[in-house]
Each structure stands twice: as C-alpha cells, then as structure tokens.
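Quick one: Xanthine dehydrogenase family protein molybdopterin-binding subunit from Streptomyces vulcanius, structure tokens please.
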Amino acid sequence: MTNEAATATTAAEPSAPAPESIPHGLGASLQPADARAKTEGTFPYAADLWAEGLLWAAVLRSPHPRARIVSIDTSHAREMPGVRAVVTHEDVPGSPLHGRGKADRPVFASEVVRHHGEPIAAVAADHPDTARMAAAAVIVEYEALDPVIDPELAFEAEALHPDGNLIRHIPLHHGDPSAAGEIVVEGQYRIGRADPAPIGAEAGLAVPRPDGGVELYLASTDPHADRDTAAAVFGLAPEQVKIVVTGVPGATADREDQGFQLPLGLLALKTGCPVKLTATREESFLGHAHRHPTLLRYRHHADAEGRLVKVEAQILLDAGAYADTSAEALAAAVSFACGPYVVPNAFIEGWAVRTNNPPSGHVRGEGAMQVCAAYEAQMDKLAKKLGIDPAELRLRNVMATGDVLPTGQTVTCPAPVAELLQAVQDFPLPALPKDTPEDEWLLPGGPEGAGEPGAVRRGVGYGLGMVHMLGAEGADEVSTATVKVQDGVATVICAAVETGQGFTTLARQIVQETLGIDEVHVAPVDTDQPPAGAGCRGRHTWVSGGAVERAAKMVRTQLLQPLAHKFGMSHELLQITDGKITSYDGVLSTTVTEELQGKELWATAQCRPHPTEPLDSSGQGDAFVGLAFCAIRAVVDVDIELGSVRVVELAVAQDVGRILNPAQLTARIEAGVTQGIGVALTENLRTPRGLIRHPDLTGYALPTALDAPDIRIVKLVEERDVVAPFGAKAASAVPVVTSPAAIASAVRAATGRPVNRLPIRPQAAVVTSQ
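--- reply ---
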C-alpha cells in the first residue's frame, strides 16, 4: 500500500481449530472466519483506518430541497489555519456527473440544488473539527425555490433536471383488456420512505499514488463500478484508481454513497496527502439512497369462486432528485404487481419520476416490497367481499412452475407457492396471553405502557411474496474467481464483497467440498482483481459462488489427472471424500494432503448465467434469471383504543432451492423478517417540504430486540433450481418483501380497518365503535 497508509484494511482470520472440529463443505453450518473478531470488537472497519500525514475531510451540504445557487465564496474557508484544500464543482477535472443506474447527479451542485443535503463543497484540514468549521465557513448565496415534493405533480411541473421529470414509464399489457369479473375490489395504497440505516455510517480513506492516481479504502459493495465512476470524475484512467474494500459493517443496499467517495478522492489528489472522511449519522441520512415512496392504485376482478380474472394497477415511484436505480425498481414493481398468483389478464401502468425529495435507489426488495403490500391488501378485500377464508382464497390462485407471469415469461424455476402457504396455514397458532398482572408486558404498549387488556384484539394475516434474483432486463451478470492451492492451503481470490450475506463462508465451503481441503482462506477484495459485480439479489451465491466452484473443479482436475494417469484410469473415476482420494474400485486410496505436497495448483474461471432481455413497449419479455418465493403468517395483538401493535409471531415458509449453510440461512431469513417489521410498523423517514426531519436514529425508529417476535421457520422447501450452480436461491430479500404485507393483513383482521399505508400509523388501527 502506498504512502504507508491504512494500518488496518481487513480482519486477520483467527487461527484454525483442530480439523476434527471443523464442519466441512456445503450443507454444514461453517462459522464465518471473521465472527470472533466482530464479536470481540477488533474487526477493522473503514472508520478505523489511519495513515501517516492524514488530513480530515468535511462536506458542505445544501439546507434547501430546491434552490438556485447565486454564488459560492470559499475564501473564508481557505484562509482558516489548518485548512489544506477546498473543492467545489470548479475543481472537478473529469465528468461532473455520476450515478448508479444513470449518470445524472453532479459531484457538487453548481447552478441549482435539487434535494436537501446535496453536496456543495468539501474541505480537507489537519483536524476534523477544523474541517467541519471550514465547511461551515463556505458562504453560499441561495435563491430558494418552491420544491416539487408530490410525485403526482411532477408530470405537470417544470423540469427539475435537464433530462426531465419522467425517468421511466412501463405500460404492461397482458391478455384481454375487456375481460371482467363478477366481483371487483379497488384500493389505493401508500408506502413510506425507508432508510437502509446501515450499522455504521459511511467512512473512507483516500491515498494519492506516485503515478498521479489514487487509492480509495472504502466499504464498497461494488468496487469496480465505483472505481470506474471515480476514474471518470477524476479524469484518470481506470488503472490509476484502485479501490480496496475494507470491512463492511452490514449492507442491505448499495452500501456506499458515491457522492461521499468522490469528494474524498478529489481532496487527496489536490493536497497530495491521505484524506479521511467519516460521515455523521445525519450526513449518512442526507447522502445515501432510500426506499422509494410509492403510490399504488389497484382494481382486482374475480369470478364468484374467487379466481382472479384481471388485475389493473397504477404504480408511481418517487425517485427523488436523481434517477439512480429507479428504472430497475420500476421494472420489478410492474412485473410483480400481481404477486405469485395466476392472473390471465393484467394491465399495469408504472412510472418513476423525479421530485425534490431525497434520492431513492436500491434497498433490499425494491419495487417488489411496495406492490406486495398492495396486492395482498387487495386479496384480503376480495376474501372479505366473497366471504372466503383469506388463506383459502390465496390457495385458489397461487402460481406454480409452468405458469406465466404478466410479462409473458414462463416460470421455469421451482415455484412451490401452494406448499409454502399450506405450511404456514397448518402451523399451530400461538397461545392467547393470559389476562393477569404478571403478563402486562404482553400488551401492545409494552412494559408499564398504557392500555387495557380488554381493548386488545388478536389478528391473523397472510402474505405471499416474490422477488427476482440477480440483475434483470439484459444485465450482464458475470463473475471471475481464482482458486490457488499451495502446501495444502487453498486461497480464493474473488472480488465479491462480503456484506454479511456469507459469501466468504460459502466460498470456503465450496472449496472444502470440491477439493477436500480443510484450510481455506478468502483474499481481501480490491480492484486489481477481475470484477465480480454488486453484492445484491443473491448474486454472489449464484454467480460468484459458481465461479469459485468452476475454478475449484479445474484445480481438482489438475490434482487428479496425474494420479489417474499413473493408474491407467480416467480422473472422473476418482472421488474426493473427507480429504481422501479413492477410485471407484477401491484400488486407489490416498489423501489429498499427501498428493498436494510440494505442489502449487491454481485455476481461474468465470460464471455467467443465461441472458435476459429488456421489457418491450408492452411490458413483455423474459426479463428475469430466476425467482424466489415466501409465505408468512403473521399473528398480532392490537390495542384498538390506542392503535398500538405488537407482532406476536411470524411463521415463515420459504423456497430456498438448496440449503448451503443452515445456520447462516436461518440468520438471513430472521434478519429479513425483522427488517420487514420495521417497514410495517416503525420506519418512516419524514420529509415535510422535502426536508429530512430528524436525520438520526432517535427520529428514525428501527425495530430493536424488544420488537422482534417469535419467528418460526416452519418449512424450507429444497427444490433445486437447475440453472443455478448449486440449485440455491436468494434468501434475504423475499422475507423483507413479504413480512410487511403479512403484518398489515393481520392488523386488518384484528381491527376490520383497511390499513392502506405503510408504516401502519396508530390511527389506522384504532376502532372507534365496536
């Protein structure tokens, strides 16, 4: 590393326990290599980095959601003692724009600001307090403008961006528009703005290189994409910019705000010194993308037996000031607008528009979560109108393998939706709480809370959700991995970032399974390695895991071929089991350790799933590589006088394809369900007039351990997806998508109220007359 920078970049793996204590291969609950360091607090994150001659950075952000910039005066900041550099839009040597899905966002605002918190300038100084004071000393004269905060008004409002206010429109037409059902239900639904609320706020270190380039040490989840963006902005060749991935403190979305990374690199290049920036929680809320607030209007048609005939819907995503990944989120929302149900006729209109609200982007289950809450509310309305049990109505309509999505794509992957729903329906319900003083904590208001036991009503509701895996609409999903074996120790080199989804553990398991080697290490990630893509939608389990498996199998062939040749047989007649190499006839028996002595073997391989295609002008096309499904039954207690809600139990059934690590899979599902509880009940980033109110973790209420109910994983369906390398499916996003809908369904059952907004506000659960 240049300039003797960053005394910590990755966690050292703990010493290996005795081989007999290590679980082996796929299907075992192998412990993560960094588990001990993280639990002891010694795991190094980006905020822990240090370098000789370090400077500190601070960013000045707009206090307005929309304004014209009249002037920017940096002279006072530059004259402050200890200030080494101040940069604005005038100091960007390359492209002035960047963005995840579309490069439409300025590095620094120059003529106008389009959202609260947009970067205006950045400062580097010899002390963090000096940097913050200097940033505050930059004088910006604004002409405040009326913000456009209602996405419905964005269609007629003046253009907020040179590209216009409409980011994407998808009209999906499937079947007969004149089809109609005997029973019709309608509804309008709103989903609020949610923040990914990463465990640690953004932090990073930029170090200038002798060749005029720069190294960025970041908790990036897509380092090669971030490198290419940074190189374009810095006016450098990609090989002059290197990104080293430091410890990622959890990621449920694109972890790093690029608007955070870019000023950091510019300051390092301008000063010639290492520069560190650690965002406050407020800056984190202001900078990174949020879940799309969504307005949905639905009309469901069904016959007298409750079978769906037609679904009509309008979906409007508030993208905020910039496009980001809104086009992709809209594709998911429109495609899954009918849910995992057989719908012969569907007519969906979807729009994503710019406003002056905070930017929206990729947050786990984007698009799919919003429509799930709406179509499941419609199914409850339909069941009530028909007088049919809500679970039974769903069973009459669920899709299966071979059915056709409204996009015209045939569902070729396993789709055991009926089996999942039946499993949660049949699971025993939790016991009712006793009306005794010692059980007061069971009240929705919690310990010492207000409320009377007589006002509590119990409700049971259902949710069926679906998500797509990997990228969609023609995205080139490819990953490269190298497996090296030397002195009986294997090393995996792959730029797949460990964000908590368990890729490094899976990579170790794959090599153990394929080569019979106990000790497997995964190398730290940087952009000197071939790209592996972003860590989302089960991508690294499928694509990067597939690349690791292929490379390991190539090394296996290198190991076995000489041995097979010596005994006059094909290497395919040899097998590796529990570290032993044996032939089909038992003549040959040796150990992997013996055969690897003095050898160095390595191989590099790629994995690229089958291609997809963009949706056409009618919303038709084979846009998705694979699908994953989940069923959840929610049991809630609601105080109908106060409107407080306690989630008692969530019973989960999920199709997982194949269980690769039981403990890890259970943790991922439980975490996803708990995240969905926050979406359903507490998480609402309020933005009156486009201003983020209370951008901190006191004003933004995350669910805690006290909010987590009993989560019962009642069934995991292992029906392998034959096109996936291991047959496994993405596990984390679909419970996030499904649990808010199930909780809302249960609150409807308890109160009889429509509950058409998430998060559920207390007034929505109050029953005024009984």
